[in-house]
Amino acid sequence: MELFEMTAYEAATALQKKEVTSLDLTESVLKRISEVEDIIKGFITILDSEKVLQEAKKIDRLLAEGKEISPLAGIPMALKDNMCTQGVPTTCASQILKEYRPPYDAHVTEKLKEAGTILVGKANMDEFAMGSSTENSSFYHTCNPWDTSRVPGGSSGGSASLVAADEIFFSLGSDTGGSVRQPASLCGVVGLKPTYGLISRYGLIAFASSLDQIGPLTKDVRDCALVLDIIAGNDPRDSTSVPREKEKYADYLGREVRGFKIGLPREYFEEGIEEPVRKVVMEAMAYCDQLGVEVEEVSMPNTLYALPCYYLVATAEASSNLARYDGIQYGFRAPEEDNLIDLYRKTRNQGFGPEVKRRIMLGTYALSSGYYDAYYLKALKVRTLIRRDFEKVFQNYDLIVTPTSPTTAFVRGERIDNPLTMYLSDIFTITANLAGVPAISIPCGLAGGLPVGLQVIGRPFDEGRMLQFCYALENVLGFKGLKPGIPAKGVLRDVS
Amino acid sequence: MSPEYEVVIGLETHVELLTESKIFCSCPNRFGEAPNTNVCPVCLGLPGSLPVFNKNALELALRAALALNCTISSYSKFDRKNYFYPDLPKAYQISQYDMPLARDGYLDLVKNGCLVRKVRIERLHLEEDAGKLLHSYEEARSYVDYNRCGVPLVEIVTAPDLRSPEEARLFLELLKKILLYTGVSDCKMEEGSLRCDANISLRLAGSDTLGRKVEIKNMNSFKAVQRGLEYEVSRQEEILRAGGQVVMETTRWNEERGITIEMRGKEEEHDYRYFPEPDLPPMVLNGEFIGEIRSKLPELPVQRCFRFTEEYGLTPYQAEIITSSKNLADFFEETLEHYPQPQKVSNWLIGDVLGLLNSMGKEINQVTFTPLHFSGLLKLLDTGTLSGRLAKDVLEESFLTGKHPEEVVQEKGLAQISDEQKLLPVIDDVIKGNPNAVSDYSGGNKKAIAFLVGQVMQRTRGQANPQLVTGLLKKQLEG
Fold first, then answer.
1. Are strands B194-204 and B214-219 parallel, antiparallel or unpaired?
2. CA separation (Å) from B444 to A51, B138, B289, B384, B435?
3. CA gyration radius, chain B
4. Which end of chain B is more exposed for a tag (fewer CB within 10 A), N or C?
5. Does any domain span residue A237?
6. Rounded to whole angstroms, what are the CA distances from A162 to A51, A90, A186, A443?
7. E strand or H helix at B131, and its extent?
């Protein structure tokens, strides 16, 4: 087995036991990148390899000196390109920030650096995290390692495909309506969107502030817990970050799950879902018996309104968050402007791609005087109803399970011209963002040779028990360890 | 202004708060730094940065709200006001829209001890300041200085209760006094820490509907506010008299030309697309916290003025002048600690001290003359060391040099001469040297003695004790 094939935990264990060095691991990953990145195109920026190897050597030196290092120290990783990295381009996959190098590190960047992980590069994404296929990157599209004619999902498609293709041990994505979970599902990796407020958004370039949350994309559930242990925790620089005692998520793994009660909301299994996907998820849930976990059907009647609600709240906030890209202080400025208004118009017209413009227009409209009450205010009310749906179910159930995405990875170009079809990719994931609750996607099988994700949703700040359940399920499902063959279409096991 | 029309004015005042740091980041809240040196990712609105609300700004805003008799909202929130302008780096201003920090206050306008008008305060809310544009006409370029971005402001909006440009000025003077008293702001209009926009309309006297209003911006002094409004009153009156209609618009006051100039019409008004700021949680204030702020509130000018008349027996006129500035009133009371004679202190303070301050264009806290200096001077008067006339000279010298009056007296040898042995030779000289005046006096013209006293004073450089000199002269001439 090649080193790059290991999980982050396996690699870190080998490192701590001095069976390998961080240099070995980093070189292995860089070699893998040189072999497959041309096909996958998951990175926007790859850091200078000499500098990356220097960082690895630093960790090796600490180990050689017998210093205690944190659990994932020396492990190479990637960040989605909307998380600020001091002096390293942070583009949001947009022409408008093409040359932008932030003067500061995001909270998560700081945390991962402190923990000694090795930043290798910045991952591709849909421009400003708007999209479900990474086709909206203004640079190039990223391929799904399971089938390179297909999309990796989005918007954290780069982060997901890099982990799936073993180009990196783990990555971070951001999730506003499913942007971590949906690509995790489509690429066969684990992706978590934590409770709103668990991880500081300081330095995450905002799409929709009340929905955005950073989360790990990893090869398995244990890695997810380990990364979460590093990045979770209160940060006074983000006023929406919740002050609470720090938990150790890895400690939950392996604990007994017998007696857990799970609700399967009917609304998530009825409309819009591909039959093979539904079947794979249901078959996976059949293992719950074996785990001693009780499963019952429940109803969440307001699910129906989630999509319109989401596209009002998210676009309204985005229209304001993206207004700062005006060509004045930093980023792209259109040449040859006649006057100030002209400068704004040309800069934003040339700097933003079509999907971003569409959402800015939608959001601007929703907030306009005369429309605010009918659209934005109403959406806020619906959001409350959706939150109540969750609260009600959680009175009687520990967790909620749904499919992550209604389909497996779709073919590139298939949906890009039809925004509404594209928006439906997030139909099962957006509710967790609207309610602020944590949700995770884990691979649960294959359909048509492509991975299917199962979504587990928990109570606010109940990530520990979610991971506990996912770890148990992962062990019985037998998906873990399945790898896509690149570049050949990798049909390894097909349960459909 | 003919009695046919009534003037209706409402004011929107922006006040910079005297906090240590800015409202949403830890950059110092300072005026006058080199451009773009007092900035950070947060106040520059860089991608990924987030605001964190400065609790100190909340305290000062609450203090202002309580001093303006407002009701504090137990629940309020921040909103985003969206518009594009190069001095606004996020392209939205964090402000408060439908749930301001405080509402429904009032101020009583008092002139010469009489209530002129009760002015309602509609709302007081918190917001961040924007940067500044600097235009270079030679280069045909504009520059942006972001230093002021994120300076904490409160916006105070009055009801349309003011009835003349003079009342508008009086209101602003009172507002400034209160904000200085409470330490909320330094209210320097020339540095922009107090800014005022006015809405003004005219209506037929007796009518209770509002006329079409015009907003005036860019009035950079209290005098400019009054002048700008006076100009607008006569402009609108002229239009109405000619049977025309006032056009709703926003104008700028041009100080040099003494006129208002149209900025934009009503149809060009922005749609600010306000919505709740998702990066900041709402503010929930409990009564206990508000009570704590209230208990820390200093005595306000009106209360202090009243107390000065009661406690020190000052006339309302004296009390009003002394309490017009917190620093002056503090100076007064501190002086009394060393020299407990309110009337004397008040007379000298209002007459000579204020006169000197006015001629220097300074406030009492900007000079080195302290209450100890002042009480020392008054004591020198009591002991007869200084005549009233000399005391004025010593006061001035002490003001300019910061030296204690006693020191001035000693250095310059200015002490009053009350020693007969020293005065008699001078008196003799004067009698000898002015035979005409002496004979006038002897001839029954008693006024002639004043001339002789003056001569003695001149020869002693004003140091002779005039009462003593008069007595001695009489004795010499009549004896």
1. antiparallel
2. 111, 80, 80, 32, 14
3. 30
4. C
5. yes
6. 20, 18, 13, 16
7. none
- Tokens coding B317: 């006129």
Residue B346 lies in domain = 327-412
CA angle, A162 as apex, A129 and A450 as ends, to 5°? 90
pLDDT digits (tens, 9 = 90+) for B133-159: 999 888 888 899 999 999 999 999 999
Whole-model pTM: value is: 0.88
Residues B84 and B207 in one domain: yes
B48 in contact with A at a CB cutoff of 8 Å? yes
Within 8 A of A237 by CB-CB distance, chain B residues are: 50, 52
Q: How many CB pairs under 8 A join A and B?
A: 98
The amino acid occupying position A100 is Y
The pLDDT tens digits for A389-434 are 999 999 999 999 999 999 999 999 998 888 888 888 899 999 999 9
Question: Which single residue is written with the structure tokens 């001839």?
Answer: B443
Which CATH number is A257's domain given?
3.90.1300.10
Instruction: Report the chain A residue with the minimal C-alpha distance to residue B84.
Output: A323
Is the ipTM value over 0.90, yes or no? yes
Which domain covers residue A77, as residue numbers? 3-302+384-477
Q: A344 with A326: CB under 8 angstroms?
A: yes
Measured between CA atoms, the residue of chain A closest to residue B278 is A210
Whether residues A329 and B89 touch (CB distance < 8 A) is answered with yes
Q: For residue B229, what are the CA distances in angstroms to B9, B165, B187, B222, B246?
A: 9, 5, 21, 11, 15
Q: Using a CB–CB cutoff of 8 Å, tell me whether B204 touches chain A.
A: no
Co-location of B251 and B363 in the same domain: no
Instruction: Tell me, yes or no, whether B296 lies in a domain.
Output: no
What strands, in cross-sheet order, belong to the sheet with A170-175? A43-46, A118-123, A76-80, A170-175, A213-218, A190-193, A439-447, A450-458, A399-403, A261-265, A294-298
